[in-house]
Design a protein that fits this description.
1 helix, 436 residues, globular, mainly beta, 22-stranded antiparallel barrel
Length: 436
Amino acid sequence: MGRKRRWVLALCCAWAGWGSWALASSPGFGLMSGSTTVSLMGFPLPCSIVDEIKLDTPCERTVFAWDLEVGINLKCSFDSLAVTIGTVFGIPGPEHLALGLAGKWAGIALSSELCFAVPYESVVDANNLPNVAVIPPGDLLFAQARMEASGNFSGMGVQWIAVFQDLNFPNPGADYNPPGDPDHYRASDQIFALGSLITLSADAGAGMKITVQMCLGAEAGSFTVKKHSTSGKANPDAMYLTVSFTDIPFPCPWCVGPIGHPRMGITFRIQPKDDPFISLTGSVSLTLFEDISIGTSFTLGITGGLTWGGFSVSIPTSVGTLNLQFDASGGLSSASLNMGYRHQFNAGWTSGSCSATATATLDKGVTGASFALALNQGLFTSNYGLSYSWRSDTGLTFSELNVRFALNLSPVQVGFALTFGHGGLAQFGVTIGYVF
C-alpha cells in the first residue's frame, strides 16, 4: 500500500472513530431530514442545413443537448451531533460524495468533512459549445479532509480551519492540460498537503474591530470539486500573519463643520517567505456634508517605501450614486453613476417587488442595465429578469432574459426556468425536489 493511500485510510479511520464515539455518547434519538432534487436541463445545438453547414443564426426547430442531475442530501441528528451525506450524480456518473460530522462541545462548534470526487474539466465540444467532461479514467478519488472549530470566548471570536487536500485536483471550471498526452488523472497524480488557517476577531470599542489571521500552509481561498466547494485552500507556500484594525476613530483638528466621521483602517502583514518581509496597508475615510464619502489608501513596505493609491469620492444624488476615482497624481481615472430603484407592492390578488439598476460611465455612457420582477400568489411564484450589457463591437446590447416559475406543494417543489440570450434560447430546465 502506497504512502498516500495509508494517509487517506488513516484519516478515514480517525473520522469514523470520532463519529462512532460521538454517536455512542449522544443520548438523543436520530432525526432524519434532507432533500432529493432531480434537474433536467436542455441546451439547443447549433443549427445545420444541407451538407452540414452550421448557421450563425438560430433555427426555429433544433436539436437539444441534455443534462440530467440528481442531488441527494441527508442529515441525521443525534442530540447535539449531526451526520450529513451529500452527493450529486449526472449523466457521466457520480460527481462528488461529501461525508460530514458536526457537533458542539463546551460551547465550541466542531465540524469535519471527507470529500471524494471525480475529476472534471471544462471543454469546448464538437458543437463549439462549452461543456464539462470527465477526465479519464474517471475514478472517484479522495480529494480532501477538512475540520473546522469556532467559538466565542469573552467577546473574542475564534475560527480554526485545518485541511488535508490534493494540490493537483483539477478545477472543474478550468481546462485541464497537464504535460504529456493523453490527459488523465489517477491516484498516482495526486499530491497532498496539510495546512491550517486561524482567525481571531474582537471588538475594541468605539466601533473599532481587530482581526488576526495566521496562515500555516493554507489560505483563505476555496477548494472546489464538481458541484461542491468549501472555504480554506491548502498552499504550502502560504506562511504569513496579518493583523487588521478597522474603523479606527482618530483625532482630526481640521474635521469641523461639514467634515466629519474620520476613520482609519490599518493592516500589518508579516510573510517570512515573501518580499517584502513586513508590509503595512492602510485606508482613511471621512464624510463631507454627512452624505459625501471620501477615501484613500496607502501601502508601506520596508524596501518599497510609501505608495499612495489615490483617492475616491462617492456622492449620492437624486438619480443615483456618483463614484469618482482619482489616481496617485490627482488625475481623474474613472467616473461612474450607479442608479437603482426598488418597489414592493400588494395588488390584492398578488404581491411582489420590482427593481431596476443601471450603470453609466463618463466615456461609454450607459454600460449596463437590468430589470427584475417577482410575483407571489399563494403556492405559486414567478420571477422575470431582463439585462443589457456593454459589448466592445456593438455597445449596449441585449444580454439575457430569465423566466422562472416555482410551485411549492410541500414537501414537493417544482420549478421551471427559461434563459434567452443574444442568440435566442440558451437553456431551459425543469427541477423537481422533495424536502423532508
